[in-house]
Design a protein that fits this description.
This protein has helices at about 35-50, 90-95, 110-120, 185-200, 205-210, 220-225, 230-255, 270-285, 305-315, and strands spanning about 1-10, 10-20, 25-30, 60-65, 70, 75-80, 90, 105-110, 130-135, 140-145, 145-150, 260-265, 295-300. By secondary structure, the chain is an alpha/beta fold. The protein folds into two domains: about 1-115 and about 305-315, Nucleotidyltransferase, domain 5; about 125-300, ATPase, nucleotide binding domain (Nucleotidyltransferase, domain 5, 2-Layer Sandwich). It has a five-stranded mixed β-sheet, sandwiched between helices. Strand 1 and strand 2 (about 10-20) form a beta hairpin. The relative contact order is 0.15. The structure holds zinc ion. Zinc ion binds near residues 161, 171, 173 and 178.
Protein backbone atom coordinates (compact mmCIF):
# COMPACT_ATOMS: atom_id res chain seq x y z
CA UNK A 1 0.00 0.00 0.00
CA UNK A 2 1.42 3.38 -0.97
CA UNK A 3 0.36 6.90 -1.85
CA UNK A 4 1.66 9.49 -4.27
CA UNK A 5 2.14 12.86 -2.57
CA UNK A 6 2.48 15.98 -4.70
CA UNK A 7 3.45 19.45 -3.50
CA UNK A 8 2.75 22.18 -6.09
CA UNK A 9 5.03 25.02 -5.04
CA UNK A 10 5.62 28.41 -6.59
CA UNK A 11 8.78 27.29 -8.39
CA UNK A 12 8.78 23.49 -8.31
CA UNK A 13 6.49 20.49 -8.14
CA UNK A 14 7.86 18.02 -5.60
CA UNK A 15 6.38 14.53 -5.54
CA UNK A 16 7.05 11.32 -3.65
CA UNK A 17 5.74 7.79 -3.39
CA UNK A 18 5.20 7.13 0.31
CA UNK A 19 4.70 3.80 2.06
CA UNK A 20 1.97 2.95 4.57
CA UNK A 21 3.91 4.85 7.28
CA UNK A 22 4.25 7.94 5.06
CA UNK A 23 7.97 7.28 4.61
CA UNK A 24 9.29 8.52 1.29
CA UNK A 25 10.36 5.74 -1.10
CA UNK A 26 11.00 7.61 -4.35
CA UNK A 27 11.08 11.30 -5.28
CA UNK A 28 10.42 13.54 -8.27
CA UNK A 29 11.08 17.23 -8.75
CA UNK A 30 10.14 19.33 -11.80
CA UNK A 31 9.79 23.09 -12.35
CA UNK A 32 6.22 24.38 -11.87
CA UNK A 33 4.74 25.34 -15.26
CA UNK A 34 2.84 28.61 -15.39
CA UNK A 35 -0.43 27.20 -16.73
CA UNK A 36 -2.91 24.82 -15.16
CA UNK A 37 -3.04 22.26 -18.00
CA UNK A 38 0.73 21.76 -17.92
CA UNK A 39 0.66 21.32 -14.13
CA UNK A 40 -1.97 18.55 -14.49
CA UNK A 41 0.04 16.86 -17.24
CA UNK A 42 3.20 16.91 -15.13
CA UNK A 43 1.40 15.29 -12.21
CA UNK A 44 -0.17 12.63 -14.44
CA UNK A 45 3.26 11.94 -15.95
CA UNK A 46 4.78 11.46 -12.50
CA UNK A 47 1.95 9.09 -11.57
CA UNK A 48 2.47 7.00 -14.74
CA UNK A 49 6.25 6.93 -14.12
CA UNK A 50 5.67 5.79 -10.54
CA UNK A 51 3.41 2.95 -11.66
CA UNK A 52 5.83 1.99 -14.45
CA UNK A 53 8.71 1.84 -11.97
CA UNK A 54 6.86 -0.75 -9.89
CA UNK A 55 4.63 1.23 -7.53
CA UNK A 56 1.49 -0.57 -8.65
CA UNK A 57 -0.11 -0.36 -5.20
CA UNK A 58 -0.72 3.42 -5.12
CA UNK A 59 -4.09 3.91 -3.42
CA UNK A 60 -4.51 7.66 -3.78
CA UNK A 61 -2.84 10.88 -4.87
CA UNK A 62 -2.61 13.61 -2.23
CA UNK A 63 -1.96 17.08 -3.63
CA UNK A 64 -0.74 20.04 -1.57
CA UNK A 65 -1.52 23.35 -3.28
CA UNK A 66 -1.14 27.02 -2.33
CA UNK A 67 -4.52 28.67 -2.39
CA UNK A 68 -8.07 28.19 -1.22
CA UNK A 69 -9.35 24.63 -1.40
CA UNK A 70 -13.09 23.92 -1.26
CA UNK A 71 -14.58 21.77 1.49
CA UNK A 72 -14.96 18.97 -1.12
CA UNK A 73 -11.12 18.60 -1.10
CA UNK A 74 -11.22 18.64 -4.92
CA UNK A 75 -11.74 22.23 -6.02
CA UNK A 76 -9.33 25.17 -6.03
CA UNK A 77 -11.70 28.05 -5.33
CA UNK A 78 -8.95 30.67 -5.65
CA UNK A 79 -5.17 30.83 -5.97
CA UNK A 80 -3.19 34.07 -6.19
CA UNK A 81 -0.44 32.53 -8.37
CA UNK A 82 -2.53 30.57 -10.87
CA UNK A 83 -5.39 32.71 -12.22
CA UNK A 84 -7.26 29.82 -13.89
CA UNK A 85 -7.64 28.07 -10.53
CA UNK A 86 -10.96 29.81 -9.96
CA UNK A 87 -13.57 27.28 -8.85
CA UNK A 88 -11.37 24.81 -10.72
CA UNK A 89 -11.88 21.09 -10.11
CA UNK A 90 -8.20 20.18 -9.84
CA UNK A 91 -9.01 16.65 -8.69
CA UNK A 92 -11.18 15.95 -11.77
CA UNK A 93 -8.63 17.43 -14.20
CA UNK A 94 -5.80 15.27 -12.84
CA UNK A 95 -8.12 12.28 -12.46
CA UNK A 96 -9.18 12.45 -16.13
CA UNK A 97 -5.53 12.24 -17.23
CA UNK A 98 -4.92 9.06 -15.23
CA UNK A 99 -8.19 7.38 -16.22
CA UNK A 100 -9.52 7.89 -12.68
CA UNK A 101 -7.30 5.00 -11.59
CA UNK A 102 -7.10 6.34 -8.01
CA UNK A 103 -8.79 9.16 -6.06
CA UNK A 104 -7.06 12.56 -6.16
CA UNK A 105 -7.39 14.54 -2.91
CA UNK A 106 -6.51 18.25 -2.81
CA UNK A 107 -5.46 20.05 0.38
CA UNK A 108 -4.21 23.52 1.18
CA UNK A 109 -0.40 23.63 1.50
CA UNK A 110 -0.34 25.02 5.06
CA UNK A 111 -2.82 22.33 6.12
CA UNK A 112 -0.59 19.64 4.61
CA UNK A 113 2.56 20.97 6.32
CA UNK A 114 0.73 21.32 9.64
CA UNK A 115 -0.74 17.85 9.38
CA UNK A 116 2.73 16.47 8.56
CA UNK A 117 3.95 17.99 11.84
CA UNK A 118 0.96 16.53 13.65
CA UNK A 119 1.39 12.94 12.48
CA UNK A 120 5.20 12.73 12.24
CA UNK A 121 6.72 15.90 13.72
CA UNK A 122 6.65 18.26 16.69
CA UNK A 123 2.87 18.01 17.15
CA UNK A 124 2.83 14.22 17.51
CA UNK A 125 0.86 13.09 20.56
CA UNK A 126 -0.92 16.40 21.09
CA UNK A 127 -4.70 16.72 21.01
CA UNK A 128 -5.31 20.31 19.94
CA UNK A 129 -2.54 21.78 17.79
CA UNK A 130 -2.07 24.99 15.88
CA UNK A 131 0.74 25.07 13.32
CA UNK A 132 2.03 28.36 11.93
CA UNK A 133 4.32 28.44 8.90
CA UNK A 134 6.38 31.64 8.85
CA UNK A 135 7.28 31.93 5.17
CA UNK A 136 6.74 34.68 2.62
CA UNK A 137 3.36 34.96 4.34
CA UNK A 138 1.99 33.31 7.46
CA UNK A 139 0.20 29.97 6.95
CA UNK A 140 -1.89 28.17 9.52
CA UNK A 141 -3.25 24.70 10.26
CA UNK A 142 -5.59 23.69 13.06
CA UNK A 143 -6.02 20.23 14.58
CA UNK A 144 -8.90 19.75 17.02
CA UNK A 145 -9.29 16.48 18.91
CA UNK A 146 -6.88 14.81 16.52
CA UNK A 147 -8.67 15.89 13.34
CA UNK A 148 -7.68 18.54 10.81
CA UNK A 149 -10.19 21.39 11.08
CA UNK A 150 -11.16 22.71 7.63
CA UNK A 151 -14.17 24.85 8.55
CA UNK A 152 -17.50 24.93 6.70
CA UNK A 153 -16.14 26.25 3.39
CA UNK A 154 -12.58 24.91 3.55
CA UNK A 155 -11.36 28.33 4.68
CA UNK A 156 -10.39 27.68 8.32
CA UNK A 157 -6.92 28.36 9.71
CA UNK A 158 -6.17 31.45 7.60
CA UNK A 159 -4.35 32.76 10.66
CA UNK A 160 -2.07 34.97 8.58
CA UNK A 161 -5.13 37.07 7.83
CA UNK A 162 -6.27 37.57 11.41
CA UNK A 163 -6.96 41.31 11.55
CA UNK A 164 -4.36 42.39 14.13
CA UNK A 165 -4.06 46.15 13.45
CA UNK A 166 -7.13 48.28 12.61
CA UNK A 167 -6.42 50.17 9.36
CA UNK A 168 -2.87 48.77 9.36
CA UNK A 169 -0.61 47.88 6.42
CA UNK A 170 -2.35 46.71 3.26
CA UNK A 171 -2.15 42.94 2.81
CA UNK A 172 -1.94 40.95 -0.42
CA UNK A 173 -5.46 39.70 0.34
CA UNK A 174 -6.83 43.23 -0.01
CA UNK A 175 -7.60 43.74 3.68
CA UNK A 176 -5.49 45.81 6.07
CA UNK A 177 -3.56 45.02 9.24
CA UNK A 178 -3.41 41.22 8.71
CA UNK A 179 -1.07 39.25 10.99
CA UNK A 180 1.24 38.27 8.11
CA UNK A 181 2.06 41.93 7.47
CA UNK A 182 3.80 41.88 10.90
CA UNK A 183 5.01 38.31 11.31
CA UNK A 184 6.43 36.55 8.22
CA UNK A 185 9.64 36.43 6.23
CA UNK A 186 8.50 39.54 4.35
CA UNK A 187 7.82 41.36 7.64
CA UNK A 188 11.30 40.39 8.87
CA UNK A 189 12.85 42.10 5.84
CA UNK A 190 10.58 45.10 6.30
CA UNK A 191 11.50 45.57 9.98
CA UNK A 192 15.21 45.14 9.23
CA UNK A 193 15.14 47.67 6.36
CA UNK A 194 13.27 50.26 8.37
CA UNK A 195 15.74 49.81 11.25
CA UNK A 196 18.69 50.31 8.88
CA UNK A 197 17.16 53.57 7.65
CA UNK A 198 16.50 54.86 11.16
CA UNK A 199 19.79 53.71 12.71
CA UNK A 200 22.45 53.72 9.97
CA UNK A 201 25.16 53.97 12.67
CA UNK A 202 24.18 50.42 13.81
CA UNK A 203 23.70 48.97 10.32
CA UNK A 204 27.29 48.06 9.43
CA UNK A 205 26.79 44.27 9.43
CA UNK A 206 23.45 44.24 7.61
CA UNK A 207 24.85 46.60 4.96
CA UNK A 208 27.86 44.29 4.49
CA UNK A 209 25.60 41.29 4.06
CA UNK A 210 23.45 42.98 1.39
CA UNK A 211 26.47 44.28 -0.49
CA UNK A 212 25.75 47.90 0.42
CA UNK A 213 22.34 47.92 -1.31
CA UNK A 214 19.56 47.95 1.27
CA UNK A 215 16.96 46.98 -1.37
CA UNK A 216 18.80 43.64 -1.74
CA UNK A 217 18.49 42.77 1.96
CA UNK A 218 16.80 39.34 2.33
CA UNK A 219 15.53 37.25 5.22
CA UNK A 220 18.48 34.81 5.39
CA UNK A 221 20.89 37.78 5.76
CA UNK A 222 18.85 39.07 8.70
CA UNK A 223 18.94 35.56 10.21
CA UNK A 224 22.71 35.39 9.84
CA UNK A 225 23.22 38.83 11.39
CA UNK A 226 20.92 37.99 14.32
CA UNK A 227 22.77 34.72 14.95
CA UNK A 228 26.02 36.73 15.10
CA UNK A 229 24.44 38.97 17.75
CA UNK A 230 23.87 41.95 15.45
CA UNK A 231 21.64 44.46 17.21
CA UNK A 232 19.41 45.34 14.22
CA UNK A 233 19.06 41.71 13.16
CA UNK A 234 17.93 40.86 16.69
CA UNK A 235 15.59 43.86 16.68
CA UNK A 236 13.86 42.60 13.50
CA UNK A 237 13.39 39.12 15.03
CA UNK A 238 12.08 40.68 18.25
CA UNK A 239 9.46 42.50 16.20
CA UNK A 240 8.20 39.48 14.24
CA UNK A 241 8.46 37.41 17.43
CA UNK A 242 6.30 39.91 19.28
CA UNK A 243 3.67 39.79 16.56
CA UNK A 244 3.84 36.03 16.41
CA UNK A 245 3.15 35.99 20.16
CA UNK A 246 0.23 38.38 19.76
CA UNK A 247 -1.19 36.29 16.90
CA UNK A 248 -0.92 33.09 18.96
CA UNK A 249 -2.60 34.77 21.95
CA UNK A 250 -5.52 35.85 19.72
CA UNK A 251 -5.71 32.31 18.33
CA UNK A 252 -5.69 30.83 21.85
CA UNK A 253 -8.67 32.99 22.81
CA UNK A 254 -10.67 30.97 20.26
CA UNK A 255 -9.03 27.53 20.23
CA UNK A 256 -7.08 27.07 23.51
CA UNK A 257 -4.61 24.60 21.96
CA UNK A 258 -2.03 22.58 23.92
CA UNK A 259 0.77 23.26 21.43
CA UNK A 260 1.83 25.74 18.76
CA UNK A 261 4.26 24.35 16.18
CA UNK A 262 6.21 27.05 14.34
CA UNK A 263 7.61 26.14 10.91
CA UNK A 264 9.14 27.93 7.94
CA UNK A 265 12.65 29.02 7.03
CA UNK A 266 13.06 31.75 9.65
CA UNK A 267 12.49 29.35 12.57
CA UNK A 268 16.02 28.01 11.91
CA UNK A 269 17.19 30.77 14.29
CA UNK A 270 15.40 28.92 17.12
CA UNK A 271 15.02 30.86 20.36
CA UNK A 272 15.97 34.16 18.70
CA UNK A 273 12.44 33.98 17.27
CA UNK A 274 10.73 31.71 19.78
CA UNK A 275 11.71 33.55 22.99
CA UNK A 276 10.10 36.88 22.06
CA UNK A 277 7.14 34.87 20.70
CA UNK A 278 6.72 33.00 24.01
CA UNK A 279 7.17 36.17 26.08
CA UNK A 280 4.54 38.08 24.13
CA UNK A 281 2.20 35.10 23.97
CA UNK A 282 2.14 35.05 27.78
CA UNK A 283 1.84 38.83 27.87
CA UNK A 284 -1.24 39.03 25.63
CA UNK A 285 -2.96 35.80 26.66
CA UNK A 286 -6.26 36.23 28.46
CA UNK A 287 -6.08 35.10 32.11
CA UNK A 288 -2.39 34.38 31.55
CA UNK A 289 -1.45 33.88 35.22
CA UNK A 290 -4.38 31.57 35.97
CA UNK A 291 -4.41 29.01 33.17
CA UNK A 292 -2.38 26.38 31.40
CA UNK A 293 -0.09 27.63 28.65
CA UNK A 294 0.42 25.95 25.29
CA UNK A 295 3.91 24.78 24.42
CA UNK A 296 5.51 26.83 21.64
CA UNK A 297 8.04 24.75 19.69
CA UNK A 298 9.86 24.67 16.37
CA UNK A 299 8.68 22.30 13.64
CA UNK A 300 10.71 19.11 13.27
CA UNK A 301 9.37 17.32 10.16
CA UNK A 302 11.54 19.51 7.91
CA UNK A 303 11.04 20.36 4.25
CA UNK A 304 9.08 17.17 3.63
CA UNK A 305 6.30 18.08 6.10
CA UNK A 306 3.98 19.06 3.24
CA UNK A 307 4.56 15.86 1.29
CA UNK A 308 4.19 13.70 4.39
CA UNK A 309 0.99 15.51 5.33
CA UNK A 310 -0.43 15.23 1.80
CA UNK A 311 0.36 11.50 1.72
CA UNK A 312 -1.31 10.89 5.07
CA UNK A 313 -4.37 13.05 4.37
CA UNK A 314 -5.01 11.41 0.98
CA UNK A 315 -6.25 8.24 2.70
CA UNK A 316 -8.23 9.91 5.50
ZN1 LIG B 1 -4.56 39.48 4.60
Amino acid sequence: MSTLAVDIGGTKIAAAVCDANDSIIQRWRVPTPMNADAINENIAKIYHEAVASGHTDIQAIGVSAAGNVGADRKTMTFAANIPSWLNYDLSEHIGALIGHAVPVVIENDANCAGWGEYVHGAGKGSRNMVALTVGTGLGGAIVINGELYRGSFGMAAELGHLPMVPDGDTCGCGLRGCAERYTSGSALEHFAKSAVRRRPQDAKRLMELCGGDITKLEGPMVSQAAQEGDVLGLYAFNKIGEWLGRTMAATAAVLDPDIFVIGGGVVAVGDILLEPARYNYARFLEGSAYRGHAKIVAATAGQDAGLIGAANLALR
